[in-house]
Amino acid sequence: MSTAAKPLPPHGSYARGNGSPGYREPCTCEPCLVARRRGKKRNTAMRELGRPGKVDASQARQRLISLHVTTGWNDLAAAIDGSAANLRDIAHGRRLTIRRTTHNKIMQLKAAPSGGQYIDGAGSRRRIQALRAIGWSAKAIAQQAASSQARIQLISNGQATVRYSLTVKIRNAYTALSQTPAPAGYSASRVKGHAIRNGWAPPAAWDDDTIDDPQAHPDWTGHCGTDRGYWMHSLQRLPMCERCRQAHEVWLDEQAHLTVQELNQARFRARANASHREADLAHDARELLRVSGLDVQLAAERLGVTRNHLQQALLRNPEPAVEQDEAVAA
Prior knowledge:
Elements: H1 14-18, H2 30-48, E1 54-56, H3 58-67, H4 73-80, H5 84-91, E2 97-99, H6 100-107, E3 118-120, H7 122-133, H8 138-145, H9 149-156, E4 161-163, H10 164-177, H11 186-198, H12 227-235, H13 242-254, H14 260-292, H15 296-303, H16 307-316, H17 321-329
Antiparallel strand pairs: 1-2, 3-4
Helix pairs in contact: 3-6, 4-5, 7-10, 7-11, 8-9, 8-10, 12-13, 12-14, 14-15, 14-16, 15-16
């Protein structure tokens, strides 16, 4: 298959007069010679003023790499009226220096995301798994995201990259469905069971600011990564996360010098501390919300915990019926 040849620069331009080594000979017509002399004179003057025509490509390379996460090469090239091949060469380190004008265009570039661009699928995968952890089936999620059930299942099972346009749809579906569990029934129970067996974290374990970060971890208990988190997993019958499992192993190693009786006493104390603190936090938060009228975010800041942790505490420690009756009577 043949491709169309790139058109020559017009006569009277520096590019035509200077040529391209190995590709195109310099033009010797009078307009091109004049343009060439002027261009070289300008480059010399700029170099003497400390503003050379070519600069190091490192900054532009990093900028292109970050932009390419959501925007394709063709769209980036169109935004600066340049060549996609040239941008790829810069991003992949094949060009160590670039023209100052190209550098400035790249650094000022504010390209809109390309719908067809493939990006990291961690955020989409976590959102689908979180919805399934509260009972929403792949079919229901697919309908909400205007996608196919097969595609949703592939992503939830570990597809590495997802088109940007689909990540937006999945994010919107997550926003719409994550606030309420799926209607009770056999289907929801089956979906939840599948999620538990796979250790998929529910929406309450994820923070909106970190769910897209591939390096982030779900926080099931508000103390994941500590021995207290391990006991909270056990007490609340939550799937054990790897960070809490490892933290408990470290805790056991630290208690290796204890006798069997002393170790059992230490375990009892650790378990008791984990069992009461979250219930007390939920009680204090409800009192604060009721008296002050603060929202959950401000209440979490006042109590010295994260919003995600406070929401988990409230969900896992529902308000007792007696407190509800008293609140209604008041």
